[in-house]
TrEMBL record:
GO cellular component assignments: endoplasmic reticulum membrane
Protein family (similarity comment): Belongs to the sterol desaturase family.
GO molecular function: fatty acid 2-hydroxylase activity; iron ion binding
Transmembrane segments: 54-71, 83-101, 136-154
Domain Fatty acid hydroxylase: 88-226
Protein keywords: Endoplasmic reticulum, Fatty acid biosynthesis, Fatty acid metabolism, Lipid biosynthesis, Lipid metabolism, Membrane, Metal-binding, Oxidoreductase, Transmembrane, Transmembrane helix, Zinc
Biological processes annotated in GO: fatty acid biosynthetic process
Name recorded for this polypeptide: LysM domain containing protein
Pfam short name (any one): FA_hydroxylase
Membrane topology classification: Multi-pass membrane protein
Amino acid sequence: MVSQEFTVDLNKPLVFQVGHLGEAYQEWVHQPIVSKEGPRFFANDFLEFLTQTVWWAVPTIWLPVVCWCLSMSIQRGNTLPRLALMAAAGIFLWTLIEYTLHRFLFHIKTKSYWGNTAHYLLHGCHHKHPMDGLRLVFPPAAAAILCIPFWNLVKLIATPSAAPALFGGGLLGYVIYDCTHYYLHHGQPSKEPAKNLKRFHLNHHFRIQNKGFGITSSLWDIVFGTLPPSKSSSQST
């Protein structure tokens, strides 16, 4: 793991090392190490604990919140058909948010010390160690913080009765996304569409990392022209 000016020691905590790679960080972080044992991030045990999340924490924590949001919408006068429609719209909107965040934030190009450090914590670590099972889903504390601006945005664009259903649907979309993401890395699907989703996502990790940003669906990759070419077409060109 050598750059022109700095060598990353994989046996030491990584977070405060990667910033020193400078422009070489982008190449380094996109050379995956396939191991189910993740690296050490911080020397401090408490900070290290905050970076690790078991996959089942996501549905355990957030599904009750989804149910609370949907029940609040009913209490505010929403009918069941309208509730289902708004929740479905929230799930659909999440797929666009998922694509947008992955493409434009998670894959932002960095070269400064703090830029590289922040990117590694946000998403770079997942590309460097894609099979690290404790750093695949989003930490609940960070997700809770991000919920605040999203909830305020939903309140601006929806009526008081529709806002909880729309937000709850979006939150349900997030839970589906994180659980799907974990399964695509650690599950062994034998049937479609899960088998194709796994192939599509691993292609993003190990073949063409600047294409294929959708996790739960390739819809927005098709819409915005970031669908990766098939192996046969890429080999023939």
